[in-house]
């Protein structure tokens, strides 16, 4: 059995930014007496979609003079290279290349001679590679001195080969020679002219002016090559900035792209939130290529779209889901009475189902229609009548389907106020047909009939300051007791079927009976299982909270976890866990010990 481990978290900004100047012209079980039991690793299935030409986590984009498009995949720690029309050319893996390993590579820029500069944000340095991926050198370390960085997010190359870096958390811009020799810096924290608040991206125009996406101040500022303030204009949440050979400036926000004159006069704007052609969910990269083609990476849909300078769509490549049996972000899981295992994959916009051995059986996939789409499908549960209920956290709705995937109905934010459920994270269904939903956004638990009629809700029933705090997991035992993973309070509570508080256990920590953001709960075979997400383990207890054991630990190997998200127990006692950070489902079987 794996021991628990203390995990140290390193801050990683929520928004990934790109800068690349183009330099060329079951529901429970019977609660009997708990027996001594351990769980052994029994198998796994699934892997992240990592085929050539597909993406996992796009965080960088750049275009060479010849028109080749480089795409940085942070999760793969690799670059993929495509033609300007999206045909796959090659991939080069940067993890361990020449002794170099990345820690959150965040941006890249390509010089006129083909040299690739990468902002290795987590390691606070800039790395150089040639155009075939061979390591050439690196500079920088954590600090506030000359040539030191604190989360360098953006990098751009000037026409003369000098390298400009957005040193985000030092609130400044630094620039260097091509081999990393420090040349100068400017900026300090603030909102006045020339001051910066999280300079997140930058681009160097052909005339040498440096355009900076001053994200915290909602503006673009531009400077001379040596940092003298020239001007600014307002832009809501600027994520990326690029400059063309004729001086036009393109700025990308979360779901749109705007084209400006060099002095900030708006010329045109395109894009809106969505998954259709020319729409974006979360822009994760912007680059300008030959012929002024504008390439936009959408991290949420794992695709590249490219446009002309006026916003006309020219082409798309990439796809938002991986092969059958693979996962992008497996989160919700449940087991039906006939043994099928259903997995909700919100980033992949689908629900997949497998047999008990992990063999792929089928999937429902769609992200384009409100009724049948699975965008942000967070959890899944199966009723005794065979219908499948799915919680959609982003839309705040519950939808239900026939066993064959036919849409039957739903309820949520567009219904009457008493049925609103803004952030349904987890749901479970009792044999009697009562649906319990963990409404994390409202810090409460709600119960419904199978057709969505509200039965009850509670939030103040939990003891302690503030009651429930972002409850993420909920499960019901065969005797009707309701168990809640009170995530941000780092504890487990249980209630009677009438919503009366019965007891609680747990506190923040890494020891036995302590939790770090527990997100999943399941009951079965007389045990209560908790997905202790922040501690990368599963703990199990008696129905009243007596600690009985644990398994897991941080890692990629069999029986190890990286952010276990949800948990389900089959009638034979097999425990299924969505190992979100490792893009797989693992299952464990009970072994009685003497």
Structure description:
Helix content is 0%, strand content 44%. With 594 residues, it is mainly β. The strands form twelve sheets. It has a four-stranded antiparallel β-sheet with strand order 1-48-47-46, with no helix packed on it. It starts with 36 loop residues before the first strand and ends with a strand. Mean pLDDT is 77; it is low at 1-35, 94-99, 365-375 and 413-420.
Proportion of residues in β-strands = 35-45%
Q: How much is the average pLDDT? A: 77
Q: What percent of the residues sit in helical stretches (DSSP H or I)? A: under 10%
- Largest sheet features: 4 strands, antiparallel
Give start-end ranges of low-pLDDT stretches: 1-35, 94-99, 365-375, 413-420
The helix tally amounts to 0
First CA to last CA: what distance? Answer: 15 Å
Counting DSSP E segments of at least 2 residues, the number of strands comes to: 48
């Amino acid at each position: 059995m794996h021991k628990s481990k203390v995990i140290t978290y390193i801050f990683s900004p929520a928004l990934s930014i790109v800068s690349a100047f183009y330099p060329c012209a079951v529901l429970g079980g019977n609660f009997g007496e708990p027996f001594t039991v351990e769980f052994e690793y029994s198998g796994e299935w699934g892997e992240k979609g990592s085929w050539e030409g597909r993406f996992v986590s796009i965080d960088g984009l750049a275009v060479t003079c010849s028109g080749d498009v480089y795409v940085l995949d942070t999760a793969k720690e690799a670059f993929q290279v495509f033609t300007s029309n999206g045909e796959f050319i090659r991939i080069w893996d940067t993890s361990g290349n020449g002794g170099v390993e990345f820690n959150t590579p965040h941006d890249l820029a390509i010089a006129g001679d083909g040299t690739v500069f990468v902002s290795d944000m987590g390691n606070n340095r800039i790395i150089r590679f040639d155009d075939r991926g061979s390591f050439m050198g690196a500079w920088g370390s954590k600090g506030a001195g000359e040539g030191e960085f604190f989360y360098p997010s953006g990098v751009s190359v000037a026409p003369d080969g000098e390298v400009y870096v957005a040193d985000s958390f030092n609130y400044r811009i630094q620039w260097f020679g091509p081999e990393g020799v420090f040349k100068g810096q400017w900026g300090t924290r603030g909102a006045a002219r020339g001051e910066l608040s999280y300079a997140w991206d930058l681009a160097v125009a052909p005339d040498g002016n440096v355009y900076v996406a001053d994200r915290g101040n909602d503006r673009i500022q531009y400077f001379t090559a040596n940092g003298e303030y020239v001007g600014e204009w307002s832009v809501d949440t600027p994520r990326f900035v690029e400059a063309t050979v004729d001086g036009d400036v393109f700025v990308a926000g979360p779901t749109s792209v705007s084209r400006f004159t060099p002095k900030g006069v708006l010329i045109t704007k395109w894009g809106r939130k969505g998954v259709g052609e020319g729409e974006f969910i979360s822009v994760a990269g912007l680059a300008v290529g030959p012929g002024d083609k504008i390439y936009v990476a959408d991290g949420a849909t794992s695709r590249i779209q490219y446009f002309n300078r006026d916003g006309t769509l020219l082409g798309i490549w990439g796809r938002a889901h991986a092969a059958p049996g693979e996962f992008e972000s497996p989160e919700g899981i449940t087991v039906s009475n006939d043994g099928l295992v259903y997995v909700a994959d919100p980033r992949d916009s689908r629900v997949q189902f497998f047999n008990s051995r992990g063999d792929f059986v089928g999937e429902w996939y769609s992200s384009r229609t409100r009724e049948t789409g699975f965008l942000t499908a967070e959890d899944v549960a199966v009723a005794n009548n065979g219908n499948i209920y799915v919680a959609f956290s982003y839309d705040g709705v519950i939808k239900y389907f026939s066993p064959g995937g036919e849409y039957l109905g739903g309820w949520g934010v567009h219904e009457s106020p008493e049925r609103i459920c803004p952030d349904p994270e987890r749901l479970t269904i009792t044999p009697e047909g009562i649906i319990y939903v963990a409404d994390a956004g409202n810090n409460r638990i709600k119960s419904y009939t199978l057709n969505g009629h509200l039965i009850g809700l509670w939030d103040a029933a939990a003891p302690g300051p503030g009651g429930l705090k972002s409850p993420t997991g909920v499960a019901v035992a065969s005797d009707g007791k309701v168990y809640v993973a009170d995530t941000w309070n780092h504890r487990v509570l249980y209630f009677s079927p009438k919503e009366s508080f019965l007891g609680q256990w747990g506190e923040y920590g890494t020891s036995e009976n302590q939790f770090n953001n527990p997100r999943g709960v399941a009951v079965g075979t007389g045990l209560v299982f908790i997905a202790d997400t922040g501690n990368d383990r599963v703990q199990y207890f008696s129905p009243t909270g007596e600690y009985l054991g644990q398994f897991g630990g941080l890692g990629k190997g069999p029986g190890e976890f990286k952010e276990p998200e949800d948990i389900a127990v089959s009638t034979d006692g097999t425990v299924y866990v969505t190992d979100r950070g490792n893009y797989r489902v693992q299952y464990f079987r009970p072994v009685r010990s003497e």
